[in-house]
Each structure stands twice: as structure tokens, then as C-alpha cells.
Amino acid sequence: MSSSDQPLAGKVAYVTGAARGQGRSHCVRLARAGADVIAIDACGPVAASNGYEPATPQDLAETVSLVEGEGRKILAKEVDVRDAEGQQRVVAEGVEQFGRLDVVVANAGVLNWGRLWEISAQQWQETIDTNLTGVWNTIRATVPAMIAAGNGGSIVNVSSAAGIKAVPGCGHYCASKFGVVGLTNSLAVELGEFGIRVNSVHPYGTDTPMGNDVSMYEMFAAHPNFIHSYSPGALPTDSLAAPNLISDVVVWLASDASSLVTAAQIPADKGYLKI
To answer: Which regions span the lipid bilayer (predicted)?
Structure first.
């Protein structure tokens, strides 16, 4: 393959929430672009209020098989992003095995529903701890290795359209994803001197277990005025977006094709944010 076919040849990527959905798609696409992969997923229950089933060890094993099918190597571990020391151990093992770290995709996240004054303290905390503190843990685990390697690199934080345009029914999720934007922009300035770029991606309506959570419709049934905040977007929308379409953006941000882009919020939303 040519360098244009494999823009990440010789590089190593770390992906969280890798067992299925967007995380699995990111792993496979990064591998197809030439990168070896370090992958983690909790592979079990993460938030009690989630309306969708958690990922399993079998899901992560399937991700491993798919990455290997692309001809790349992968180190995969069952680690929750809330486990800061666990992430640090996996990164250290991955760098020892592969020799470097160039790309980080902080993808792991949870989404559940409820009005802000009615959700429990547990529901709030599990969402913030996974979606925001989990990203911070990922940054703490990976940035020192990237700086030490001296190769620059790219960090891609997966936020949400709800991290730019707040919506009703999941204010705790919005707060966590808005927080990811603040973290992203500050980190981009701090890491600029090391040639490390930091950007956030903002999907909307993605075909994953989270995106297909039917408990969302229970919220709409109870509060029908909320649905007006969830427009389909500017482009034709017949279904939820395939995860690989988000991965197109992730691979671009990971590659030198986006070398001028840092501290940016990249929408992957069919124009929803402008409607």
C-alpha cells in the first residue's frame, strides 16, 4: 500500500471504549491506516442508569480479531477509564511492547436520561466520572509517554453535538461533554510546544448501542416538548450514522493531513448544530 493508503504506518494508537460501537470502529480504521493499537474497555456494567447493555469481554475479543485481520498488532485490556492506575499500567505495557505512542482517542462514554433535578447523585457522578474524569485519566496516562517520545502526535477527544448545543433530558451528559471541550482546548495550548495536537469530535445520532437506547423515547413521551431540541440536521437523515463515518474524521485528525488543526471542535452531525 502507498503512504496515502496508510497515513499512520509505523504509528501506535491508544483507544478507550474499544469493545464495540465507535471505539471498535476507530480501532479498525486506525489499524487499516497502518497503526498498531492499544485498546481498553470496561467490558461490564459502568452506569446503573444506562438503558442499554454493557460491552462484554467477547466484544473486546472481536475488536482484537478485526484489528489483527487488518494486519496490525493490538494489545487489549479490560480496564475502566475511571481506573487511572489501570490506564497507566496499560499505556506503560503498550509503549514497552510497541516502542512509542502517537495517537490517543479518548472515546469511552456513557449516556442516560433524566431531568437534572430528578436524577440521582449516583447517576450524575457515574456520568461525570466516566465521560469527563475518564478523559482526564486518559490524558494523564498518555501525555507523558508522548512527550518523552518526542514525535509529536494527535489526541482526539470524542465529545458530542451535546457538548456544543445543550439539549434537555440529559443535562448531566451535556455538562460532561461540554467539559471535554474545555479540557481539549486548554490541553491543546499546553501541548503545542511539543508538537502534539488536541481536538474534539462531535457526533450526533450514531448507530451504536448508546445511540439506539430506546429509553430516550420514554423521556420524549413524558416530555414531548423536548423533541424539538433534537432536529435531524441539514443533510438527509434516513437512519443513525454508521460509526465508520465518525472514524473517517478520527483518522483524519490522527494523520498529518490535519497538521494545521488543533484546539478545534469538529462536528460530525449532518449540520445538526446549525439547525
So the answer is: none
